[in-house]
Design brief:
alpha+beta; eight-stranded mixed beta sheet; 10 helices
Length: 384
């Protein structure tokens, strides 16, 4: 049975929506999470959690579990074939988590869902939000079965094509790049490094190669027309034309594959009255650097804190924290989108000048300040 009232309704039960709900439950608030899918995702999609995100997720009590289930990697490199252009190490970063954690999104979602259930929460499925009205002291969300849930606040965590964002009248302008992305999880006989995330700048285009905890590898490539269901021959061609040269890695299996368009967009505002945006409903960008889910999870924890303050009896009516969240999180999204944009553009300079680009990157990459600066940018704390 659908609850009729809640302090907060969260629309979307991906990692971001679940993290908002966990944060609110930890603060003792009544939250209802609705999602249009009959069950959570069973594919890997986003697969990296950065150091700053691990720090932030400590507040939710899930960091240790995620690290235990994931694969710790201390090295990232921008490469061209077998040549390392810029080595980036996380080992010396000023954090208790000097590494990235490779972990499929499906596992991250499961950990967050289990934490929510530990705290007495649940997800209502499958229900799509189809209507939204606001008043001075609350909002109402109408579901596709006709039920209406009244709440003090509504969180839009329902993805790039967010229904709640549109119903709230918030815009997310930006660009859709001409490139599309292939995402393929594969198994190989040998020839790919298991201790490094590699970003290959090849003549044919960009390729990300990242090991996953189960021994498979994630391949992400920008192409003009990505196949909907990439097969083994296609994945092998990506590695042959963009990856390492001497090792000749041979793919033995395609575990899963997908495609998507690259968008660079950020919402004009993260708040409209009682509605607040988080995750892909607020921002989307190139996968270069693996920043998307990380930015969304940091949104989620900050938003849960701000909502708790606004909901607390002692500070009734004080919504300054919500405005601060909206401003600060949007500014952080602009920074992250800029980083992903620069990496994507750098990977896709015209073929004629790619040799010059590689030569310059090799020289710049020898400077420790460059290596440290990029490590901090990727890790999520450029100012630390």
């Amino acid at each position: 049975m659908t609850p009729r009232n809640a302090q907060v309704v969260v629309v979307g039960a991906g990692p971001v929506g679940l993290a908002v709900a966990v944060g609110l439950r930890l603060h003792g608030h009544d939250v209802v999470v609705v999602d249009k899918q009959a069950e959570g995702t069973n594919t890997s999609r986003a697969c990296v959690i950065h150091p700053r995100t691990l720090e932030v997720l400590e507040q939710l009590g899930v960091t240790k579990r995620l690290v235990d289930l994931g694969l710790e990697l201390q090295d990232f490199a921008i490469r061209s074939g077998d040549r390392k252009l810029i080595p980036v190490g996380f080992a010396d970063l000023p954090t208790a988590y000097p590494f990235v954690t490779m972990i499929p999104q499906s596992v991250t979602e499961q950990v967050l869902l289990e934490r929510l259930e530990e705290l007495g929460g649940t997800v209502l499925r499958p229900f799509a939000a189809t209507g939204l009205t606001q008043s001075a002291d609350g909002a109402e969300v109408t579901l596709d079965n006709g039920d209406v849930i009244k709440a003090r606040y509504v969180v839009a965590a329902d993805g790039m094509n967010s229904t709640i964002r549109e119903l709230a009248g918030l815009r997310m302008p930006g660009n859709t790049l001409q490139l599309s992305c292939s995402l393929v999880d594969v198994r190989v006989e040998s020839g790919l490094p298991v201790d490094e995330v590699a970003l290959y700048f090849a003549s044919a285009g960009l390729l990300v190669v990242a090991p996953l905890p189960d021994g498979s590898f994630r391949l992400v490539a920008d192409v003009h027309e990505a196949p909907e269901h990439p097969d083994l021959a296609y994945a092998q061609q990506l590695l042959a034309t963009r990856g390492p040269r001497k090792a000749h890695p041979k793919i033995t299996e395609v575990v899963w594959g997908s495609r998507f368009r690259i968008h660079e967009r950020v919402a004009d505002a993260y708040r409209s009255g009682r509605v607040l945006l988080a995750g892909d409903a607020a921002h989307t960008h190139s996968p270069a650097g693996g920043q998307g889910m990380n930015l969304g999870l940091r949104d989620a924890v900050s938003l849960a804190d701000a909502l708790s303050t606004a909901l607390s009896t002692a500070l009734a009516g004080d919504e300054s924290g919500l405005d601060e969240y909206a401003a600060n999180s949007r500014a952080e999204a602009v920074r992250v989108i800029g980083l992903a944009h620069r990496l994507t553009r750098l990977a896709n300079v015209p073929p004629a000048i790619r040799p010059l680009r590689n030569a310059v990157l090799t020289l710049v990459g020898k400077v420790s300040k460059t290596q440290q600066g990029l490590a901090k940018q990727l890790a999520g704390f450029p100012e630390r």
